[in-house]
Design goal:
It is found in: Membrane. By secondary structure, this protein is mainly alpha-helical. It is built from 23 helices and no strands.
């Protein structure tokens, strides 16, 4: 058993108050690594792969909607708090059981993407990318709920969030860089297979851990039962995803949408619907007596409690979180196609996505996590918004410059530093909004809603690029990130009622 595994096991058996900072950091470094590896593979690496296969920029933009799936993780997050994974959870506990199931899903989805890497069937490419996004998100939901339970205060959250993001970003960047370099040396099939194997590495570490309870026995039997049950669950999820995807695609084509349709106005209208629905529901929610959510369903209670506690102020909070990461999401969607069109090689992109992005993002995460424990969150969030905007605007300089390794690496470093800093401050802020009664579900809702508008717009990014160019696109994305600053005086005064 590895040292990290031993430390993680100690945390599962010890009360949070007695868990050392070192053990928590080791655990969340591992969990961050587990979730970070697959992220680029259905996002930035996939957009680059499609661009190298000469897929239209508008279609590439549509693929960014796959990243919308994590936005709706609140829909299945309560299931992870309520149900066990057969076999796995009996021996290793509910949280680790879901993590192990998710890692199997991640591995098989990436293998499927590897063997369809020619992208001759874009619907098939989209199906396996959606499954990869689903299981990656499920892994994050299980880990996030655990983190908030183990470290409920702002002072405890800062270092743990930093460690988690170090693991997440190092794995994410290493996956992006590694996949691109393998594709340059071999092909995209080998690139996805290599990352699939790396993503599966934490599974045997988790399987080697001691049981959640000392009296639990039968590791081999639990492992076999868990794998068998997981395969059934994975097949069922794939089947449902195929049917839903086919239905949605048929409906979209039937409505007359195509690559030539300007979808931006439609996207903006759809993005306003949750705010309108919530504004209508809030008066009734605010009138609920204290304790009313305790009598509600396991699905509704966490979200009703959140709206009850913050009231109308929740609209300002949701507007702020929707804007804060806007630039990062939009930049991630088109940065790789931009590098490709600007004439940079796969080897140069691989280095930029590797050591350059990793070093810069780690520095940003470290500084953002550290300042979250030293300054008020309002000031840390403001600094994060400025650094994130600068990271977007730097690509205008890159686009108008002759291809140069120095320009590419400098741009990526500035972008990733701002992304890391803002990301660390943002995670701490969201963690402070949740109730200790519903940490997993409420964090899943807030962190998912934060990316609803950005990822909706990201799907229209190809359309926007054809209308305003790369320079106009990155100027706009940076301005949207900076706009979140104007809501800071409002959210600084938001105080919730005592939790129900």
């Amino acid at each position: 058993m590895t040292a990290v595994a031993i430390e993680a096991n100690a945390i599962t058996r010890a009360p949070p108050a007695r868990s050392s900072a070192r053990r928590l950091l080791g655990l969340y470094l591992l969990l961050g690594f587990s979730a970070g590896l697959p992220f680029y593979m259905f996002n930035a690496v996939l957009t680059l792969r499609l661009a190298r296969h000469d897929v239209d920029i508008v279609i590439i933009g549509f693929f960014a909607w796959i990243a919308l799936l994590p936005t709706f993780k609140f829909a299945w997050a309560p299931l992870l708090d309520r149900y066990d994974v057969p076999g796995f959870s009996r021996f290793w506990g509910r949280r680790r059981g879901w993590i192990m199931l998710s890692q199997l899903g991640i591995f098989l989805s990436m293998v499927a993407m590897a063997f369809t890497a020619s992208d001759q069937s874009l619907p098939l490419t989209a199906l396996f990318a959606i499954l990869l996004a689903f299981w990656t998100t499920t892994l994050e939901v299980a880990a996030d709920g655990w983190r908030i339970e183990l470290a409920p205060t702002q002072a405890e959250q800062g270092p743990i969030v930093a460690a988690n993001l170090w693991g997440y970003r190092s794995a994410m960047v290493a996956a992006g860089s590694g996949a691109v370099l393998v594709a340059a040396w071999a092909d995209w099939t080998w690139a996805y297979l290599a990352i699939a194997v790396a993503a599966f590495a934490p599974f045997p570490i988790l399987a080697a851990m001691r049981p959640e309870r000392e009296e639990t026995k039968g590791r081999a039997r639990a492992l076999i039962a868990g794998i068998f049950a997981s395969l059934i669950i994975l097949l069922a999820v794939a089947l449902v995803t195929t049917l839903v995807g086919w239905g949605l695609l048929s409906a979209v084509q039937g409505a007359g949408f195509s690559a030539k349709t300007n979808v931006t106005p439609v996207v903006l209208a759809v993005a306003l619907l949750p705010f309108a629905a919530l504004a209508i529901a809030l008066p009734r929610i605010r009138r609920l007596p204290a304790g009313a959510t305790a009598r509600m369903s396991a699905f509704a209670a966490p979200y009703v409690e959140l709206f009850w506690r913050y009231g109308y102020a929740v609209l300002a909070v949701l507007a702020f979180v929707s804007l804060y990461r806007m630039g990062d999401v939009l930049t991630l969607t088109l940065s790789h196609p931009l590098w490709n069109e600007a004439g940079y090689s796969l080897e140069q992109i691989g280095v930029a996505d590797g050591v350059v992005a990793l070093s810069a993002s780690m520095a940003g995460v470290a500084l953002g996590g550290w300042l979250s424990t030293r300054l008020s969150l309002v000031w840390t969030l403001a600094i994060g918004a400025v650094t994130a905007a600068a990271g977007n605007w730097i690509y205008i300089w890159l686009w108008h410059s002759e291809p140069s390794a120095f320009i590419l690496y400098t741009s990526v470093a500035i972008d990733q530093f701002g992304n890391g800093f803002a990301g660390a401050a943002f995670v701490v802020y969201l963690s402070m909004l949740v109730s200790p009664n519903y940490p997993g579900a409420q964090y899943a809702f807030l962190s998912g809603f934060a990316f609803l508008l950005p990822r909706l717009l990201a799907g229209a990014s190809g359309t926007m690029q054809t209308q305003i160019g790369y320079d106009g696109f990155f100027l706009l994305s940076g301005a949207l990130s900076l706009a979140a600053i104007f809501l800071l005086p409002v959210i600084a005064r938001v105080k919730g009622r005592s939790p129900i």
